[in-house]
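Retry 2 of 3 after timeout on previous attempt. Resubmitting structure tokens to design endpoint.
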């Protein structure tokens, strides 16, 4: 779906804006959220500016309760430490906060995702030693996917991204199906929500297979199935996402255009 990120989905907003707003809405006020850089960070900071002022943003660099007034460029951006409630070491973030299950939500992106919500951010291509594309890699994503109470994924939808089977499992979703997380000793619930520029998907409670539960405004079911690399399951009560409100759009656009010192 070339151009889907900037194509207007309905009057007054783009599909990319709809995706970000939908992702922000998924974060409840007061939750402790482990945030990835990029789209997850944009959505998490939008949530703080709208309905969730007490959302606790935690970044891999060790910042807890960060409140940046602009989007951080990386996990090492000084704005995170300057605005955090506290800063701890990276080992403490993982050993004390993440692995024991003290973080409610992990918020991740993906280069590839499959029908059981396994995530690839490592390589594209079957040969790990000689891939078609070598991606940034895992970072803390495998631990986030393993140990957070639940995981939310934000990713634009296309056949290149939504594949039958990921080329490399960087972060385990549900493996090959029910029971795999338990067998691997992963105590978090795993991915509970996948947010794309076309709609929302949730794992089937029995099969753990991603199921389309909601379409964004202006998107058709045919568009979603055409952008999915496997026969997509669709909920019987398929719903439509509420359009972004003027307040949500204004806050998002201000956030995206904020510069240091604004």
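Retry 2 succeeded. Sequence:
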């Amino acid at each position: 779906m070339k151009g889907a990120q900037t194509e207007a989905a309905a009057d007054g907003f783009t599909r990319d804006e709809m995706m970000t707003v939908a992702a922000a809405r998924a974060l409840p006020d007061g939750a402790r959220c482990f945030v990835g850089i990029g789209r997850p960070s944009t959505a998490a900071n939008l949530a703080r500016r709208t309905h969730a002022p007490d959302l606790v943003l935690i970044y891999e660099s060790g910042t807890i309760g960060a409140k940046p007034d602009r989007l951080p460029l990386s996990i090492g951006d000084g704005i995170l430490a300057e605005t955090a409630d506290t800063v701890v070491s990276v080992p403490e973030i993982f050993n004390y906060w993440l692995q024991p299950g003290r973080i409610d939500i992990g918020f991740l992106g993906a280069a590839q995702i499959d029908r059981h919500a396994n995530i690839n951010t490592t390589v594209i291509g079957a040969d790990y030693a000689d891939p078609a594309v070598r991606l940034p890699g895992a970072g803390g994503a495998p631990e986030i996917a393993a140990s957070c109470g639940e995981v939310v994924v934000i990713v634009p939808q296309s056949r290149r991204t939504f594949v039958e089977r990921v080329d490399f499992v960087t972060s385990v979703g549900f493996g090959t199906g029910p029971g795999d997380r338990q067998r691997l000793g992963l105590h978090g619930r795993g991915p509970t929500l996948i947010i794309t520029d076309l709609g929302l998907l949730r794992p089937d409670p029995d099969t753990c297979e991603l199921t389309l539960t909601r379409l964004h405004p202006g998107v058709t079911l045919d568009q979603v199935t055409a952008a999915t690399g496997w026969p997509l399951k669709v909920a019987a009560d398929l719903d439509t996402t509420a359009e972004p409100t003027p307040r949500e759009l204004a806050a998002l656009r201000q956030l995206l255009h904020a510069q240091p010192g604004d």
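Attempt log closed. The radius of gyration is 18 Å.
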